[in-house]
Amino acid sequence: MLPNPMIWLLLDSRSFGGIETHVLELAKGLVAHSYQVKVVFSNEYHPTPPLETALNQCSISTMTLSREYPNIHPLLRLKEAIYSAEQNNQRPTVIHTHATRVAF
């Protein structure tokens, strides 16, 4: 196994329900087992989604694709994020999507 694999948990979230609870607990569990975790939101919402706030309170890294790459077609934002992470030696080992509407 690679040392400290990077796992991205990808979802679209504006409220807090079952999927968000699952992602929060999964992220905390992975961090507790020494995995690097980044929760990646496909879209930005105002006000800030409750899950993003909860993750920040737990010091779990987040990224919002539409905020980071606003001038790129939604289908290419994830590709650009992976490329950018690779340039910083942070390429994800696993990208785990959640729910059927990741909003691409």
UniProtKB/TrEMBL annotation:
Pfam family, one: Glyco_transf_4
InterPro entries in alphabetical order: Glyco_trans_4-like_N
Keywords assigned: Transferase
Organism this protein belongs to: Vibrio maritimus
Domain Glycosyltransferase subfamily 4-like N-terminal residue range list: 16-100
Top-level taxonomic group: Bacteria
GO terms, molecular function: glycosyltransferase activity
Protein's name in the database: Glycosyltransferase SypH
